[in-house]
Amino acid sequence: MRKALFPWLSNGFVALSAEAQVGETAGEQARDVFDRFALELHSEGLSLADTVRTRLWARDSESRDGGSRERVAALAGDARSASSSYIAPAHFESSASVAVDLLAMRPQSAGATKIVKEYDPPIVPLRHLTSGSFVFLSGVTSEVGTLADQVADILPRIEGSLVDAGASWAQVAHVSFHLHTSCKVADLRALFQDAVSARVPSVEYAFVEGYSLPGKLIEIEVTANKG
């Protein structure tokens, strides 16, 4: 397991990353990871209820589906959080078929609570999570046409979720792009810059081989800070 403690925008965060150590099925492997995360967060005075974002990594579609179902169970109720999932065999250094990245946030004030907003109708990922001044959006994807078509479909929906959470592109602090290996970062960067005029201070790009459904070429995660 890898653990990092870091301040960001005047708040404290704990980042955990791990590949499964035990379990024959993807669900069992995901359960192993979240059990270990719970113990590690407890050592920091936190719990799974302080989770604000997770990324699930899988070797194949079957593992992604099984791991995703277990994540829903592990992060139910107060632990509900923004999420994304990827098929990326190259991500693994062991024989595991499931790995997870988890971001937990220390409450900005005593008694502070997370506020989650579901899609209508609800789907597996939540629409956005607000904790203090921070807004975390689940990864957003599209199945329409080309990369340009999908970016054009996704970005207005992200903007709508930001507005729904009382934020805007001007308050976005970080954007993560997980791009299909068949696509180019230069093309994605040009599409984003043409569509979003606000300056985003932190951007990252990563490559994956698949998502929840075939035909998807990009998943975009957004974090904003209204403070």
What attributes characterize this protein structure?
227 residues; alpha+beta; 60s Ribosomal Protein L30, Chain: A; six-stranded mixed β-sheet; five-stranded mixed β-sheet; 4 helices; 27% helix; globular
What's a concise summary of this model?
The protein is α+β, with helices and mostly antiparallel strands. The protein has helices at residues 26-43, 61-74, 147-164, 185-195; strands at 2-8, 11-19, 51-58, 82-87, 98-105, 114-117, 128-131, 134-140, 172-180, 203-208, 218-225.
Question: How would you explain this protein's 3D organization?
Answer:
By secondary structure, the protein is of the alpha+beta class. It has one domain: RutC-like (60s Ribosomal Protein L30, Chain: A, 2-Layer Sandwich), CATH 3.30.1330. Helix content is 27%, strand content 33%. It is built from 4 helices and 11 strands, in the order E-E-H-E-H-E-E-E-E-E-H-E-H-E-E. It has helices spanning 26-43, 61-74, 147-164, 185-195; strands at 2-8, 11-19, 51-58, 82-87, 98-105, 114-117, 128-131, 134-140, 172-180, 203-208, 218-225. The strands form 2 sheets. It has a 6-stranded mixed sheet with strand order 6-7-8-11-9-10, covered by helices on one side. Helix 1 (26-43) packs across helix 2 (61-74) and helix 3 crosses helix 4. The longest helix has 18 residues, at 26-43. The model has no long low-confidence stretch (mean pLDDT 96).
